[in-house]
Design goal:
158 residues, flat
C-alpha cells in the first residue's frame, strides 16, 4: 500500500510521464478487453448456430396396466401405512406425494402439470389423471380429419 502511494506521488511530481503512468495504472486494460472481445466474437462465428427443436408432443395414451402400476408405486412409497383400499391413500405429505408423482412421470413420460398439482389429494385422483388420454390436436385439425358434409370445407393457408 505504501509503495503504491509512493508511486502515485512520484507520478504527480513529474517523475513519470503520462504514458508511463497509464501503463503503470492499467492503461492497457482497455486494449486487452477489446482483444478478448474480438476472440469471443470469432469463437461465436465458428460455433454452429443452435436450431430450434421441434415442438414437444403432448400425446399420452394410458397403458393397459396403469392401475396395477400405480398400485405398486403407492405400496412401495407409502409402505404399511396404506388403508384397506389403496385408492383412498391421502397424499397429504408433500415429500411422499412428490416421490410418487416424480416416479410416475419418469416411467410414463407424462407429468402432472403445476396447475393441477393441488388437485392430487389421493391416489384415486392420480389414477384418474393417468387414465385420461391426451391428444395433441387442435379443434381445427380434428374438424379437418372428420368427415364433413359436402357443402363444408376447411382450407388451411400455407
Amino acid at each position: 500500500m505504501a509503495a503504491a502511494l509512493a508511486l502515485r506521488l512520484a507520478g504527480r511530481r513529474g517523475g513519470l510521464g503520462p504514458a508511463a503512468r497509464r501503463a503503470l495504472w492499467g492503461g492497457g486494460r482497455k486494449e486487452e478487453k477489446e482483444v478478448e472481445a474480438d476472440k469471443i466474437i470469432d469463437q461465436e462465428k465458428t460455433e454452429p448456430s443452435l436450431i430450434c427443436p421441434p415442438p414437444r408432443s403432448r400425446n399420452y395414451l394410458p397403458p393397459e396396466d396403469i392401475q396395477t402400476c400405480l398400485e405398486s408405486h403407492v405400496q412401495e412409497i407409502f409402505g404399511p401405512s396404506l388403508p384397506g383400499n389403496w385408492q383412498q391413500t391421502p397424499l397429504k405429505e408433500n415429500r411422499l406425494k412428490y416421490r410418487l408423482l416424480a416416479q410416475l412421470a419418469a416411467e410414463l413420460g407424462h407429468a402432472v402439470p403445476n396447475s393441477q398439482l393441488h388437485l392430487m389429494r389421493s391416489a384415486e385422483d392420480v389414477l384418474n389423471f393417468y387414465c385420461t388420454p391426451v391428444k395433441d390436436v387442435s379443434k381445427f385439425d380434428e374438424l379437418c380429419a372428420a368427415e364433413l358434409p359436402p357443402n363444408l370445407k376447411i382450407v388451411w393457408e400455407q
